[in-house]
User: Fold this.
Amino acid sequence: MLSISDVVIGILQAAVIMALSPLVTGIMRKTKARTQKRAGAGVLQPYYDIAKLLRKDEVVSDQSSWIFRVSPWINFVAIGTAAFFIPVFLAYSPFGLAGDLLLVIGLFALARFFTMLAGLDVSSSFGGLGSSREMMLSSLLEPAAFLAVFVVAVTYGGTNISTITEAASGSALLPHPQLIFAAIAMFVVMLGETGRLPFDNPATHLELTMVHEAMALEYSGKSLALVEWSQSIKQLILFALIVDMFVPWAIPQYPGPMAVGLGLSAFVVKVAVLAAGVAFLESSVAKWRLFRLPDLVSVAIASSMIGLVFYYL
Amino acid sequence: MFEAIVLLFLGGAVLALASGNRRFSVYAIYLPPMAGSALAVLFSVAVITGRPFSWAAQGVVPFFHLEIFVDGISAFFMLMIGIITFAVSLYSIGYSREYQEARRVQAFGFLFNVFVASMFLVVSSNNGFFFLVFWELMSLASFFLVIYNHEREENIRSGMTYLVMTHIGTAFIFVSFLIGYLQTGSLSFDSMRGSSTSFPFLAKNLIFVFAFVGFGTKAGIVPLHTWLPRAHPAAPSNVSALMSAVMIKMGIYGLVRTLFGLAGLGASPEYAWWGVLLIVAGSASALVGVLYAVVERDIKRALAYSSIENTGIILIGLGLSVVFASYHLVALSALALVASMMHAVNHSFFKGLLFMGAGSVVHATRTGDLERLGGLVRLMPWTSLLFLVGAVSISGLPPSNGFVSEWLVLQALLSSSQIPSTILQISIAFASLPLALTIGMAAATFVRLFAMTFLSKARSKLALNVGEVPRTMIAGMAILASACLFLGILPSLGISLSASAFHLQYIPPGPFDAVSLQNASGRSFAGLSMPVVAIMLSCMALASLGFVRVMGGRTSRTAGGTWDCGFGGLDERMEYTATSLSQPIRAVFKTLFRPHSESDREPYEQANPYLVRSVRFNSSTRNIFEENLYNPLVSSTLLVLDKMRKIQTGKINSYLLYIMITIILLLLFVRLSHA
Assistant:
């Protein structure tokens, strides 16, 4: 049964994810700017953006229906709820009894479902274009995510995130060979799900490159703030999952002031390194042609399948 | 009570014939089945929670002993029939008015009631002979319902395909029962069940294979699915709802009966191939079904393809259950069976709902072509909301029932790591790829269906001047929509009901009504508590509303035009169409679809090809199953029949000669066999 302190710990972990997520986005933008020899905005800029957008009036398309207006909220609520299942500074999340990794993937799918609908709701070609591309990419990325999760789940004996992280936190770096393959798959899935290069370029608004941005093109004001923030939260959740599953160092098993401090700082450092790495990678690769992307996702799927075979052999 | 239910359905059929085409005849047609199905729900719940019901009526049919036996399994499917029939009958009160104006509604009402009654009797008969009689009644009633709109040549052809396929299926079921009869000397299910474990291994295998093909045809397994995407769109939508939600589940019922009873499945690894066959067929059906669904232009045909997909998921669960049972992993076998049956129930709820929703759209706009729909969310608010609930559920998104059953199937699949056979572990692990792809594609399919039907601007005049459908139709859909959400938020109710229906080791709900799965050592490996998830979602919604209000303060919202890059004049011809929306998927899976497109430009002047007067564009995909499997089969059969026609000379002398030759051959046969 859950005790009050467990509930508090769970809410705190989710709050950390939601609060730190714009910072991670900021770190990535800064790293990209630096690798491209630009000064770039400060790492806190995403916070200012969200705060500013929250106070702005909105313009909505006269063609749109309630689906368009409700979708940013569903997006934010689904992804925000997913954050409650992610261990941050402890090796377990107290809400893990209520949901597992498959639920997190399901909540992401719920958010994406409404984002795609919203893209089509405004009857502009941009929205349709984004939704059409997202339909193709997500229907390939979701199985890749499932399979990567499968490898991790059979290795650590369950899809409960707490079970996985607790089992992983005691072990050395990648103690099982199949996890290397799962990590490769999970990394590709993370790039695709968060709309990073070579899948999507979060920095441009060109119709040749847009996927996620095209669906969110009509949003402004509060809705845009919610869309951007939930995208950041989703990104941090995926980073946290990768960190928890594949780099499980210095994650304390039991709560305590020292342990929480250690766990939190270890988490921040690991995530920051991963974020900077992704940003660096983004600066060094070009956007791929849309129909080459299934090849990349197939690499992820094949990698997970090899991982599964490795586990059983 | 059983008699009363059957009498109510048959009474509805008689009343339908008697009532004529009056104003109140729709009530005469649909109120009796509503009462009957409400009673059926009570009856089946009583059977599941209490004792089985048996009723033997000697002399009802001369020479044959009508045995009725309703155990938990029958009652489980009866419950499904009851709930769906209630909702569909309510829906039909409004829906049938369309037919009342055009033509006599009596025949329709008669067939509708007979159809429901026959399905009810199929699951409750305990004798191979009567099972087949009711099965045939069900097939024929549904055939006549499929061709009810017989003015259209296409519908007749769809009906004929259905008739042929369903009879091929019946023939296989018949053979399966005959093998059981040869072993026991009786067509009674009781005697087959009693001695099936001692049948020779070959007989068991044959019973299973024939039943698999026979019931698989009804359930829509690839490549026996070809009737399904034709018959469902041809039928009136309330019948499509019944067929897709309940009738194809009769195939699943037959398979469950055969596997866990008539075929004598034993706990030994030599039976594992039955499960593997089911998993392979299920994976193929799931993937092929969803890939055709995602590119289909007709809303009802897309839903029919999605039924094939869901049958596939149900079969994967069933197959896993058989594999686990053959390795004597009792708890896992129970998990997989519960997963499969929960998905069967959930599919009947959301597919019934979606077919009724599609029926409302077709009813209002007179078209099911996605390229002509759009913008209905403002004109049909209730239909669109209820259709959205169905779409979210069938896409397996939390917090809906589809998510829970797909979660259970995935957990069963993950548990295959406990099978003590490496080759099976690896091959079942590979089955997770088609299942995962299916789940991803299903969401894309229903984004497309919902968006193209209800969102953005209308793509043709047909979808412009329409209104909301009558209240009874909305009420029918609302029943199933609330059932979807109810089983999504409180799944343990459905799980414990199905566990007790199938006499499975009860999976007790964990704290907070959680489905908590434990491995052999008692450690929880997966937990899911949908009530808590629902509470978390609503708390999160409240918290974010409050946060945004406090942080952002009061802001206004103004309506403006959609961004048109400053050119102006954005109209419905510039928005994405259903075909263009699924184009990337068509391109990725081009080996399956073999997309073919041609464009034909007519310039103003031959000299300048850039000034185009008109462009004609035609894009098509091919059905590789029809082209590579059925067409050669049909044409070679026709060829053989053509050759055989030569002996039909039409002269009486030659026929006398044939009779003579036959008699001589028979005499020789008798003589030799007695020698």
The two ends of chain A are 38 Å apart (CA to CA). Chain A is about 70% helix and 0% strand. The CA atoms of residues 130 and 211 of chain A lie 5 Å apart. Chain A has a mean pLDDT of 88.
